[in-house]
Design goal:
Rossmann fold; 17 strands; single chain; alpha/beta; OB fold (Dihydrolipoamide Acetyltransferase, E2P); 380 residues; 24% strand; 2 domains; 6-stranded parallel β-sheet
C-alpha cells in the first residue's frame, strides 16, 4: 500500500454509504505530477462521515500507479481520536466481509441463523424458473434493467421487481457504485444482494447460490441480474480475468432450477481485438466455464441502429460469427433492437458508461446488454 495523511478541505457528493471528499495531502503523490490535492472517498458505514478539517489516513496506491475505477484516494481511518466513528449498535450478525483485512466488517447475512429470513432459506433449493441474467461487467447493469423495463412497457406489464446479485470480482463495497444508488433511488432496482466478499447491499449472503435464493424467497424478485461490482480485473490471458465467474453464475442458476440468460459483452469501439465484437471474456466464460445451457440473446439491429457510429454491418456479422462458436448447449435468441430501445436506454437514470465510452460511442455494448433484459422479461 502507498499511504498518505491529509486534511479534508471540502465535502462533495454523497450517496448511500459513501461520501466524496477533497483532501490536501501532507506529502505529494509519487510521480512527476506530485499532486497534493486529491479526490477521496470515505465509506460512511465504516468511517462515519468526515467533515472539513478532519485528518485522515489514506490509501493512495491506485492513484500512485494511475490505476483504479473512479480515481479516488480511499479514506482508511481518522487520525484524531475525537472523530472516531461510534461503535455499531449491538445486534446479530457474524458474517465477516473483506475477511482478515484491516477493514473487515461484520454484517448480518440474510442466510445465517440470526436472520429473520433463515427459516425461508434454510431448506430453499429451487428458483422455480426465475429468470437470471448474468453479465461480465458492472456497466451492463443499467442497460439490462432498461431493457427489461422497456419489454414490460411493450407487453403492458408492470415494471418488474429486479434484484441485483453483486459478486466480488470487482469492487467489494456496494457503496462504491453510484449506479446502484441511482437505480435504487429511482425504484429501478428493488434490492441489491452482496455475496462472497462483497458487502453493503440491502441483503448480505454467503454465496451466489444463497444470493439467488434470497432474490426469490426474500425479495420476491421477478428478475435477477448477476454481475461483479464496478471494476474488472483482466490480464490479457485466456483465463486471467474476473469475468470467469460469469460462467459459474450460470451454473449456479441452472443448479437451482432458474432460467439462465447469458448477456454478452460486446463492443464495436474497443481497440483491442480480443474485445471487439463479442469479448473473449464472454466466449471463455460461457463457452468453457458454463457447463449448463443458457439462452444467449443477440441484438438484431434495425438499419437506423446498425448504421450508428461504432456499429455497422461488419460488426453485426462478426458478432454472429463469434456467437456460432459457442457450444450447442446454449440457445442463441435473436431480439430486434430498434430506435425505441435506444430511447429506453437514454431514459436510464444511471449514466451508461463502459470503459469510458457512452451509448453514442459504443451503442452495441449497451444494446446487447439491453436485449438480455428484454428476453428475460418477455419470458418470465
Amino acid at each position: 500500500m502507498t499511504w498518505r495523511t491529509g486534511t479534508v478541505t471540502a465535502r462533495g457528493r454523497t450517496w448511500h454509504g459513501a461520501r466524496e471528499l477533497t483532501v490536501h495531502l501532507d506529502q505529494p503523490l509519487p510521480g512527476p505530477e506530485a499532486r497534493t490535492e486529491v479526490r477521496a472517498l470515505a465509506y460512511t458505514s465504516l468511517l462515519a462521515d468526515p467533515d472539513v478539517g478532519h485528518r485522515l489516513a489514506l490509501n493512495v496506491s491506485a492513484l500512485a500507479r494511475g490505476l483504479g475505477t473512479g480515481g479516488y484516494a480511499l479514506a482508511v481511518a481518522p487520525l484524531d481520536t475525537t472523530t472516531l466513528p461510534a461503535d455499531p449498535p449491538p445486534g446479530p450478525g457474524h458474517l465477516v466481509k473483506a475477511r482478515y483485512t484491516p477493514l473487515q466488517a461484520l454484517v448480518l447475512g440474510v442466510d445465517e441463523q440470526e436472520s429473520p429470513h433463515h427459516p425461508a432459506l434454510q431448506d430453499a433449493d429451487d428458483l422455480a424458473q426465475l429468470p437470471v441474467v448474468v453479465a461480465d461487467l458492472h456497466s451492463a447493469l443499467p442497460a439490462i434493467v432498461a431493457g427489461a423495463r422497456h419489454a414490460a412497457t411493450l407487453t403492458g406489464r408492470p415494471a418488474p421487481r429486479i434484484a441485483y446479485v453483486m459478486t466480488d470480482g470487482g469492487a467489494l463495497p456496494a457503496a462504491f457504485s453510484r449506479t446502484i444508488a441511482t437505480l435504487r433511488e429511482h425504484d429501478w432496482l428493488t434490492a441489491t444482494i452482496t455475496v462472497g466478499q462483497a458487502f453493503g447491499g440491502d441483503h448480505e449472503a454467503v454465496t451466489v447460490h444463497t444470493g439467488l435464493l434470497a432474490a426469490r424467497h426474500v425479495v420476491a424478485a421477478d428478475l435477477v441480474i448477476v454481475a461483479q461490482g464496478p471494476g474488472n480485473l483482466g490480464t490479457g490471458t485466456r483465463w486471467g480475468f474476473s469475468g470467469v465467474a460469469a460462467g459459474e453464475a450460470l451454473n449456479a442458476t441452472a443448479t437451482l432450477h432458474g432460467r439462465p440468460v447469458a448477456s454478452l459483452r460486446v463492443s464495436g469501439a474497443d481497440a483491442r481485438d480480443r474485445h471487439l465484437g463479442i469479448s473473449h471474456h464472454s466466449l471463455t466464460a460461457y463457452g468453457r466455464v458454463a457447463l449448463a445451457g443458457a439462452d444467449v440473446p443477440l441484438a438484431v439491429p434495425t438499419p437506423d441502429v446498425e448504421n450508428l457510429p461504432g456499429w455497422g454491418p461488419d460488426l453485426t456479422h462478426r458478432i454472429r460469427r463469434q456467437a456460432r462458436t459457442l457450444p450447442a448447449r446454449h440457445q442463441l435468441v435473436e431480439i430486434p433492437a430498434d430506435h425505441d430501445l435506444l430511447t429506453a436506454l437514454r431514459a436510464s437514470p444511471a449514466p451508461l458508461s463502459t470503459m469510458g465510452r457512452g451509448l453514442d460511442d459504443d451503442p452495441a455494448a449497451f444494446v446487447t446488454a439491453a436485449v438480455a433484459g428484454i428476453h428475460a422479461q418477455r419470458n418470465p
